[in-house]
Amino acid sequence: MQYACHCGRAWPRSALRAPLRGCDERRRIVAAGSQSPRVLAAGFRTYFNRMQKMSMSFRRFSSLATSLATLSAAAFCIAPAAIRAASAASPLTASAVVSPVASASAAREAPRPDGNAGPVYGPELEGFDYPAPVEQYPFTSQGAALHMAYMDVKPTHANGRTAVLLHGKNFCAATWETTIHRLSDAGYRVIAPDQIGFCKSSKPEHYQYSFQQLARNTHALLESLGVKDATIIGHSTGGMLAVRYALMYPRETQQLVLVNPIGLEDWKAKGVPSLSVDQWYQRELKTTADGIRRYEQSTYYAGQWRAAYEPWVQMLAGMYRGPGKQIVAWNSALLYDMIYTQPVVYELGQLQMPTLLLIGQKDTTAIGKDAASPEVRAKIGHYPELGKAAAKAIPHATLVEFADLGHAPQMQDPEAFHKALLDGLAAVQVNR
Q: How far apart are CA 326 and CA 137, in angstroms?
């Protein structure tokens, strides 16, 4: 069976399932936009208007077109470099550009037959506001021109220290919002990047993901900003990345902070079955706000739910409602494969810097748990045990436990979490 694209070309079903497939007209729009942002905005308005009238194979696409047309002038016009990187059309040329986006409230609600209504965001989270100006670090990696989004928040009264915040798998730099403010108020310069494959950063069609590669990318960003050493704070998957970064750059890591990091056990060795990248991709294509919400309520927030958590659900779900759904899902699949196949637990004993472990005791996170047998599920994701084992394995570790909190203590109880964090940071002598 074939489907008609808005440009008049007939695509086979297999082509429409590809992670990233554009058409000649879209490429012409992007190429013209590289010379004139106004041309880019006008081109995308025409592009989305045509899509609205066609019956596309991407389910629900017509309802998304109107919302995306609203965003095109704001998000796409002011950030053509980000669009070109996402579509792998041409490299960035600016060394660092501020990337303001349209207000999240401007993203219209998209009616959905499955009840999954909500805002529509672009593949690089165009349309979602961050708590500080977003800048871009352009670089070349694995032969591809990429850009890494980040926030660099400088304090009013600096204490001479820099904190780098590394987000988790289902999180973005924006989810550190409260932590950014608290650290900045305490005198820390705060740098919060979106890793490649996530949120406002590039999502390449082909990339060999590894924690070493992400650590190198992060280190290159910090070098470009003149940061020679820093306190590295990682949450969830960001905790695994923080461990790898600290192992690769020990002299440039003043202190390591791990907030409910995953990777404190080897799920593969414990019997969680392997899933292929294609299987992960098919799973990710089914992502909905309802599914995200149910998972986060049970795993991240210990069964609790508050309205304050909902923007983070919509932040993720909005990318899966947009035209970039396939490339978002594809990168997510590649990243899950990285997480599953690259454990860091066996190297915790090599960490020589002061390490603060902040562990919510009701966390049950374990990658691939839903694909495991009941017997395997019963023995993974026990954070009271995992936190203590990590503290024992890491030579200079301090463990702080939050008895009633889950996977995201910084969001579930900001006051208790940030008191423990600031106290732990203040206890470390930076001239070690």
A: 24
> What's the pLDDT tens digit per position in 239-264?
999 999 999 999 999 999 999 999 99
Q: Which of 357, 389, 384, 359 is nearest to 255 (CA)?
A: 357
User: Alpha-carbon distance 424 to 406, whole Å?
Assistant: 20
Domains of the chain: 2-426 (3.40.50.1820)
Alpha helices in 73-208 (DSSP H): 77-78, 80-86, 177-185
| C-alpha separations of 248 from 195, 242, 251 in Å | 17, 10, 9
Q: CA 318, 81, 154 angle in degrees (round to 5)?
A: 80
Phi, psi of 111, rounded to the nearest 5 degrees: -65, 135
103-149 pLDDT per residue, tens:
333 344 444 445 578 999 999 999 999 999 999 999 999 999 999 99
Q: What's the whole-model pTM score? A: 0.76
CA distance 57 to 40: 25
Q: Are 260 and 235 in contact (CB under 8 A)?
A: yes
Q: What is the share, in percent, of the chain residues with pLDDT greater than 90?
A: 71
Which tokens is 224 given? 């470009």
* pLDDT (mean) for 335-356: 97
**C-alpha to C-alpha distance for 247 and 241, rounded to whole angstroms:** 10
Please state, as a whole number, how many other Cβ atoms lie within 10 Å of the Cβ of residue 104: 18
